[in-house]
Design a protein that fits this description.
The chain is of the alpha+beta class and 382 residues long. It contains six helices and 19 strands.
């Protein structure tokens, strides 16, 4: 896995003095690198929890990023949790795109990453063979990488335009680096040359390596691995809502890209896990997220008509929440597994609540789960 390059001359990028950028610490550095226990998937995924290729890996020190210039129209932003760098691109008519740079410990399968991005733009999953065919060879800082370019066939829910994702990935030392652009399809396509050129100019200053941000172990860091990029991706960490946790839900440290996590234990020590995450915008749309949860329990995708038969809505703060309830099989244990999920749009964020585990435990907790979702108070709810 690797990086990305493009000719700056083709896009008229403005040259600046060489910049060095180090992701600011939102909290004092931890005495030891944070441990990543969730899947190390790049931003834009509302729910990367429950084991994964990175389980048990330690976040290595992250070197400073150095770049020679910023393309025209790119504005540097303070990075949210998990981002080593963040940029906003705006054209003369106000069309915008989001650029994120995410370093993560090496782990997981490339096909899982590709299908996650495809899911974000409502494309069907790809096979292993197709995944390689979809990648273009690119260069990041003189090293080899892969560039994936995916666009939705139709505008996604909540958007007037088709959505496009460019992701360049590279592996360097103990880290996988992900460079991602998300936005309106035609605008992102027009930015592709500038994106590639920018990545070509990137270098890594190992002499200035710093311990990872203290909230990286939280993933959604106080609020987002972006859970963005596009997903929490478009606007930094959201303010945490107010909620009342049921007495038998035990709060545990959230894994990568989660805002909160709870362990729930039923009779005979049967267990379920409750997680909370949030994304900027529609986060790929309701159908894509329903099918994502279905895949997690070994079920095939459904279309809009099929989805409508398996969802319901409940009142929530400032609007409605969509409930999803599916039962399938855990791929690792082979045990029957149930997911009870809730999707709650709130302003420019979409919140995801998921209880997953032993079906009997989930059934026993369904009323508590529903009440929890309904009584949450969001800081900016209408």
């Amino acid at each position: 896995m690797t990086g990305l390059v493009l000719s700056l001359a083709t896009v008229g990028c403005k040259r600046e003095q060489v910049r060095e950028y180090q992701a600011p610490q939102e909290a004092p550095p931890a005495p030891a690198p944070a441990t990543q226990t969730g899947q190390t998937l790049p931003p834009g995924h509302p729910d990367i929890s429950g084991g994964g290729g990175n389980a048990g890996l330690t976040m290595p020190a992250v070197p400073k990023l150095v770049w020679k210039s910023l393309p025209e129209g790119w504005v540097e932003k303070a990075p949210s949790a998990m981002r080593a760098a963040s940029f906003e691109i705006t054209n003369s008519t106000g069309v915008m795109a989001d650029v994120s740079v995410i370093p993560l410990p090496i782990g997981g399968r490339e096909l899982d990453l590709v299908n996650m991005w495809r899911q974000q733009v409502s494309l069907p999953p790809s096979s292993d063979a197709d995944a390689d065919k979809e990648a273009a060879a690119v260069t990041i800082g003189g090293e080899k990488g892969k560039l994936f370019d995916m666009a939705s066939a139709q505008p996604l829910q909540g958007s007037a335009d088709r959505t496009r994702i460019l992701v360049a990935m590279m592996q360097r030392g103990q880290l996988s680096w992900f460079f991602k652009v998300t936005g309106a399809a035609e605008f992102v396509e027009a930015q592709k040359p500038a994106f590639v050129e920018f990545l070509k100019d990137i270098s890594f200053d190992e002499t200035a390596a710093a311990a990872p941000a203290a909230d990286m172990g939280m993933g959604m860091g106080g609020g987002t691995m972006d859970m963005s990029g596009g997903g929490m991706g478009t606007g930094g960490s959201p303010d945490l809502p107010e909620w009342t946790v049921p007495a038998n839900w035990k709060s545990v440290p959230p894994t990568s890209m989660l805002l909160a996590k709870f362990d729930v234990t039923g009779s005979s020590n049967a267990k379920a896990e409750m997680t909370v995450s949030s994304f900027g915008g529609p986060a790929g749309g309701l159908l894509a997220n329903v099918n994502r949860w279905r895949r997690q329990v070994g079920l095939g995708p459904v279309d809009e008509a099929g989805m409508d038969k398996m969802i319901s809505t409940i009142d929530a703060s400032g609007g409605k929440a969509t409930l999803v309830d599916v039962v399938g099989t855990d791929a690792k244990s082979g045990a029957q597994t149930r997911i009870l999920g809730a999707v709650v749009p709130q302003g420019d964020q979409t919140w995801f609540y998921k209880m997953m585990g032993n079906p009997a435990v989930v059934e026993d907790q369904k009323a508590a789960f529903t009440q929890f979702v309904q009584t949450i108070k969001y800081p900016h709810a209408p």
